[in-house]
Amino acid sequence: MADHQQKIHPVHEDVEAQHTPTVPLVPRGSSKSDQTPQHDPPFERTLPVVHSKPPKKKRSCCCKFLCWTISLLLLLIITIAIVLGILFLAFQPKIPTYSVDRMRITEFNFSGDSSLEATFNVTITATNPNKKIGIYYERGSHISVWYTDSKLCEGSIPKFYQGHQNTTVLNLPLTGQTQNATALATSLQQQQQQTGNVPLDLKVDQPVRVKLGKLKLMKVKFAVTCRLVVDSLATDNSISIQNSSCKFRLRL
Fold first, then answer.
1. Pick from 201, 168, 200: nearest CA to 96
2. How much of the chain is in helix, strand and coil states, percent to nearest 5?
């Protein structure tokens, strides 16, 4: 019986071998790299770029009012320019001319209190060369005679109407009194001795109304300056005017 009994030996299992992971079998003819799992890249969706329009700027009431105002002013300027162009072509305006023809001194005395009293009679010729334009000379005119910065005498032009292509001769009395005229008397004496003549300025400010056909326009001012050279300022003498030139300006 003892010979037939088999001895059973305990089998010691390798614990580490049980926990060691097994390497997958690689088929013949293939490398490990072929067996690496391939992961596709994540799908990226391309969205179209949408350019958003900037918000429209709202014009303020002030901006609109300014635009309207500028537009109206431009329209007004263009209209006035057209009207003036039509009037110019229709009436062909020309500048009136003026000249100082004669000058007579009836009084030119230096008194003991260093004052000067002067009275001049001046003859002025005014010419309107226009065929279709008349000139109303209104009240409120002023005419004066000056030596350098000293006013010697003054007066005015009477109211009258000057028709088309008309020449009017004006005889105007001018009077004046100058205080503290000692320096003026000395200057006039030296001027007479050195040059033999005396320079004078005759200035005219004249309000007028221009008549175009039957249309009477608004009041404007004629400003005339005449530069004269006379031989002397002797009393009771018809002064000889050696040189005379007048300039005309229009003022609104």
1. 168
2. 20, 40, 35
The answer on pLDDT for 13 being more than 90 is no
What's the CA gap between 221 and 205, in Å, rounded?
Answer: 7
Contact 120, 103 (CB under 8 A): yes
For residues 252 and 223, is the Cβ–Cβ distance under 8 A?
no
Tokens of 3: 């010979």
Report the residue count for the chain: 252
- Amino acid at the residue 247: K
Rounded distance, CA 12 to CA 183, Å? 152
Whether the CB-CB separation of 205 and 223 falls below 8 Å is answered with yes
168-206 per-position pLDDT tens digit: 999 999 999 998 898 999 999 899 899 999 999 999 999
pLDDT of residue 199: 96
Quickly count: other Cβ atoms within 10 Å of residue 196's Cβ. 10
Question: Distance between CA atoms of 64 and 60, rounded to whole angstroms?
Answer: 6
CA distance 27 to 174: 139
> Of 89, 91, 121, which Cα lies nearest the Cα of 108?
121
Residue 17 pLDDT level (bands cut at 50, 70, 90):
very low
Q: ∠ CA(88), CA(91), CA(92), 5° rounding?
A: 60
Measure CA of the first residue to CA of the last residue in the chain; give whole Å.
Answer: 160
Name residue, tokens 């009994």: 5
Residue type (1 letter), 178: T
| Angle, CA 22 vertex, CA 18 and CA 25 arms, to 5° | 150
